[in-house]
Specification:
22-stranded antiparallel barrel; 6-stranded mixed beta sheet; 666 residues; Maltoporin, Chain A
């Protein structure tokens, strides 16, 4: 049973840290459960708002007024203002950061978050999210859905999903930045919107020496988007993107070395580095067949390449790792307005992957022998149907999603071939309910079943390795969204996710999985939106959570009731925006995290707790914006910690940094 913290200081902090801003816009009076960070606009109404079922639960949207002046090494950092999300900051070159929520860890051991960019799946085969191709200036808004009640997605949609939407407005601007650690950045956006045709281009480049020694980073991206409207009922879109990223890796330190000098690199890692590339092209068609029937089609090709040299400790050998993920896919969605109250939605999707994964034992980047060469296909096909009723006070939608897999793996080192695990069709029921008790007071609840699909070699079976069933995850959430005043929005929810036969990737680098057993994750979220007046606004959140081994199996009874590794006991955010005059703005932001265990078995010490404060000043020059940003104002020490054998390895995160930026709008 989840224990609520009764400490009055913690309760006071919870109340203080749970604000989300409606910055410079009046709250949207809608029958929903969504909270906004940033200006409340109709971000979901470009074409098909009335043709999609409404999500009910912990849905958060952050808009461009909170994103446009951010400057980050990794795009994940744009999500740090979202309630209930947290990060593992490896800080090891191209393997830098991953995100987690709902009691899962962000270490890549269990794929659990679906990422989409402009509606296109953007997870690597292993489930890691790849969003670095988007710079802050190109992002229009971001939506995070927590929980497993969303029927639209199957693969990786275990704890929720993230949707990034790029800009398509009529604007032209450039921006330059200089900052700490010899950081240089340039961004440029060009958008031209005509009656039935628009074109949009973005170019970005960033270079930095990094906070730690041997942590140089350089990345470049280019994107082009073209939108054609042959009639009032049809949109045809084409999106193309190229991105490359090169970085050195400073390696992991002992606990004492990290405390003594967090900026140093490990001597054994002096030859560690890597590069990654993303290539993407997709076509999108939106068509209103008539006043009741809407059709959306997407098709895409993309390739993610990763190449790196890595060494984890003085005792280990250096490895060269090469991964190529080539993905093709298609998504079709149909919306049918049966009547004013009834909406039927349905969809089909397919993603085919043709991948290779190679590893070599190396010394100073010279190959000694090859230790892995997998050549494999991994195909996911699925679909959903959902029926929604929306009356004056009641909204209820129920649906089913089904997913299946095909593919085979060839071990090129020994010629062994294996077929993908044949678990048949996995059916996942979903249910969303919202009831408006009185205007501006909504009760909501949802239920969902999702699945965990292994990746890599464990996804395939041979004659000596029998088939197994995919692990199912059962999620529940109930809450209240209340707007007691025009300037204040609030949301509170309780949630739980249970699983049996949960799998986790082994930490020995083999690519194999092991069965954790039965797990339980639960917690509660608080969220508030406050737009006090034209001068003051604030945003924030507080999430408390537990993630435990309920029944680990007969051979692991000593770990029964233990916390799962890498899951902080709480996360919180706090933002305050002060705008004394129309052209000047001061923003204060705090991100807070509790500590976590580094092992499911050894639980004698915890790591990871921090309080980070950022400060920003922006001045609107009329023709552009001048900005000063100070990240980690108090130079707080924080780190990522991982257990290898019986010893922990440590990767310190960035200390204080100051950036100066200047933009020009044409």
């Amino acid at each position: 049973m989840f224990k609520f913290p009764l400490n009055p200081v913690r309760l006071a902090l919870a109340c203080t840290f749970t604000f989300s801003t409606h910055s410079y816009a009046e709250p949207v009076q809608e029958q929903d459960s969504t909270l906004y960070i940033g200006e409340v606009i109709e971000v979901v109404s470009q074409h098909n708002k009335t043709k999609e079922a409404q999500l009910v639960g912990s849905v958060d949207i952050i808009t461009r007024d909170q994103l446009q002046n951010e400057h980050v090494n990794v795009t994940f950092d744009l999500l740090k203002k979202i309630p209930g999300v947290y990060f593992s900051r490896f800080n090891q070159g191209i393997i830098s950061t991953d995100i987690a929520m709902r009691g899962f860890n962000a270490e890549g051991s269990m794929p659990h978050t679906k990422l989409l960019i402009d509606g296109i799946p953007s997870n690597l085969h292993v489930g890691l999210n790849e969003m670095d191709a988007l710079f802050p200036m190109e992002v229009e808004w971001m939506e995070v859905v927590k929980g497993n009640h969303d029927a639209r997605y199957g693969l990786h949609n275990l704890a929720g999903n993230i949707n990034l939407h790029s800009r398509r407005d009529d604007a032209k601007e450039v921006e330059l930045l200089v900052g700490s650690f010899n950081t240089l950045e340039a961004q440029g956006y060009f958008g031209d919107v005509q009656d039935n045709f628009s074109q949009h281009y973005f170019v970005g480049a960033r270079k930095t020496d990094g906070y730690r020694d041997h942590a140089d980073l350089e990345k470049h991206t280019f994107a082009g988007k073209w939108f054609y409207q042959p009639s009032d009922n049809t949109d045809i879109d084409l999106v193309a993107r190229y991105f490359d990223y090169e970085a050195d890796a400073p390696g992991y330190l002992t606990e004492q070395a990290a405390q003594d000098d967090p900026t140093q690199s490990a001597d054994y890692a002096r030859d560690d580095s890597g590069d990654k590339q993303t290539r993407h092209i997709s076509a999108h068609i939106d068509h209103d067949v008539n006043n009741h029937l809407y059709l959306n089609l997407k098709t895409y090709w993309q390739q993610f390449d990763r190449h790196r040299y890595v060494r984890y400790s003085q005792q280990s050998l250096q490895q060269e790792r090469l991964e190529k993920d080539q993905q093709i896919g298609a998504i079709a969605t149909l919306g049918y307005n049966i009547s004013k109250q009834w909406l039927l939605t349905a969809g089909l999707d397919y993603q085919g992957q043709d991948n290779t994964n190679q590893r070599f034992v190396t010394e100073k980047k010279q190959r000694i022998k090859q230790s892995r060469y997998w050549d494999f296909t991994y195909n996911n096909y699925g679909g959903f149907t959902q029926l929604q009723y929306k009356g004056e006070q009641l909204l209820i939608s129920g649906g089913l999603r089904a997913d299946g897999f095909s593919g085979e793996l060839t071990n090129q080192l020994n010629g062994e071939k294996k077929d993908i695990n044949d678990s048949g069709i996995t059916v996942q029921p979903k249910l969303n309910v919202l009831y408006e008790v009185i205007p501006n007071l909504n009760l909501f609840a949802n239920y969902g079943v999702s699945f965990q699909a292994p990746t890599g070699s464990k996804a395939y079976v041979s004659d000596t390795n029998n088939d197994y069933n995919l692990s199912k995850n059962y999620g529940y959430e109930a809450g209240v969204k209340w707007q007691p005043f025009d300037w204040l929005d609030t949301r509170v929810s309780l949630w739980q996710q249970d699983a049996k036969d949960e799998l986790t990737q082994k930490t020995d680098g083999s690519g194999d999985f092991e069965n954790l057993g039965e797990t339980k994750r639960d917690g509660w979220d608080l969220g508030f939106s406050a737009y006090l007046d034209d001068t003051w606004s604030a945003f924030g959140s507080y999430t408390r959570q537990e993630a435990k081994l309920v029944e680990p199996g007969e051979n692991q009874q000593a770990s029964q009731g233990n916390w799962l590794r890498g899951v902080p006991e709480y996360t919180a955010t706090l933002g305050v925006i002060y705008q004394p005059i129309e052209v000047a703005k001061v923003s204060l932001f705090g991100h807070f995290q509790g500590d976590y265990y580094v092992s499911n078995v050894v639980q004698d010490k915890r790591y990871g707790q921090y309080t980070i404060i950022d400060l920003a000043f922006d001045y609107d020059l009329g023709w552009g914006n001048a900005g000063v940003r100070m990240n980690n104002v108090f130079d707080t020490y924080h780190e990522y910690v991982y257990l290898v054998g019986s010893e922990t390895i440590h990767s310190p995160s960035d200390g204080r940094a100051i950036n100066l930026s200047l933009s020009y709008r044409f």
